[in-house]
Amino acid sequence: MTELTFRKTEEVFRRPDVDLTTRLGSITFPNPVFTASGCAAAGQELDQFFDVSELGGIVTKSIMLAPRSGRATPRMAETPSGMLNSIGLQGPGIDAFLDKDLAWLHQRGARAVVSIAGGSVDDFAKLAARLRGQKGLAMIEVNISCPNVEDRGQVFACDPMASASVIQAVKRSAPAGVPIFAKLSPDVTDITAIARACVDAGADGLSLINTLLGMVIDTDTMRPALGGITGGLSGPAIRPIAVRCVWQVRQALPDIPILGMGGIRTGLDALELILAGANAVSVGTTVFGDPSAPIRILDELAVALAERGFGSVAEAVGLAHRPPEVHVPEGPDPVGDTDPEPQQEDEQ
């Protein structure tokens, strides 16, 4: 049994003896639960509730080359079983991020998955190059669900060629040996086509899924509720879509590592994505209501795996893809005549 002491509450929880290690690209992580980009900056806010180094990794908010103020307010709106956000990639820029946030994660002993975003292929390449030699960097998540300023606002992840061009540039510029994961949008006709293009371009894995484009209209003001008009839908409402996307990509690319996300609130939610084919999961929107959710979900996942007889999380990855079991009905053979031959009476 593994004993975990919660630093903030002194509560002791004994996890079942299940091997929670998972491999993403060339890196083995201690467990499969990560944060999701954009919901907790670089993790400092969450560290007051639990030790962030206990998670598999901390996925940072997407960082850009220059400081960015983001979109107009209001930026968030509640929806049934979810929320819309229109933050607009607000952030301090890569220089401040490296000096403050990444340095803090390294000092804290957390495994940093740095999410990068840009408006052009060159932006992504420059960001990847800036990460060379940085301590604490475990993985790079390439947020290609951003508007492409070189193509009149077309989102990179909606086009296979545009997606591939970004991944190729990042792969050439990134630190050697650091896994590169492409974060894909569900707002496409065939997500497997985008996934395959990214893998062919050199992606070591895929992050599925980003938010869905949505909109809310305030029926009192009779105007859009968000200052930016549209926003990204996240939360439990999108989990079935995330499960579908992970399932489809796992079927199309059975050997590619997948970091799954979208509406995870419990350990069973995490297990569902793992059964669909995710090697690890990211927890996002639920931290707004429960900041300790990631560590709780890790505990619940360990219990759920043990209760189902798994010795490791690796055994559960993609298990839902196995062929259905054929149940043979009990009783007489339904094929052929099973009645004994009738006996003929002797003729008199």
3D structure, described in words:
The protein is of the alpha/beta class and 348 residues long. The protein is 25% helix and 21% strand. It contains seven helices and 20 strands. Strands 5-20-19-14-13-10-9-6 form an eight-stranded parallel sheet. It has a four-stranded antiparallel sheet with strand order 7-8-18-15, with no helix packed on it. Strands 1-2 form a two-stranded antiparallel sheet. Helix 6 links the parallel strand 19 and strand 20 (280-283). It is globular and about 70 Å long.
Which structural class should the secondary elements be placed in?
Answer: alpha/beta
Q: Percent range for helical residues?
A: 25-40%
Strand order of the largest sheet: 5-20-19-14-13-10-9-6
> How many strands?
20
Number of domains: 1
Helix tally? 7
Q: Please name the CATH architecture.
A: Alpha-Beta Barrel
Q: pLDDT below 50 for ≥5 consecutive residues: which ranges?
A: 1-10
Order of helices and strands: EEEEEEEEHEHEEEHEHEEEEEHEHEH
List the helices and strands and how they pair.
Elements (H helix, E strand, L loop, with lengths): L1 E4 L6 E4 L6 E3 L2 E3 L3 E3 L22 E2 L16 E4 L2 E4 L8 H15 L3 E5 L4 H10 L6 E7 L3 E2 L5 E2 L4 H14 L6 E4 L7 H10 L4 E4 L3 E4 L1 E2 L4 E2 L5 E5 L4 H14 L5 E4 L5 H10 L3 E4 L9 H15 L41
Parallel strand pairs: 5-20, 6-9, 9-10, 10-13, 13-14, 14-19, 19-20
Antiparallel strand pairs: 1-2, 3-4, 7-8, 8-18, 11-12, 15-18, 16-17
Helix pairs in contact: 2-3, 3-4, 4-5, 5-6, 6-7
Task: Describe this protein with a few key phrases.
single chain, 348 residues, alpha/beta, TIM Barrel, 8-stranded parallel β-sheet, 4-stranded antiparallel β-sheet, 7 helices, 20 strands, disordered N terminus
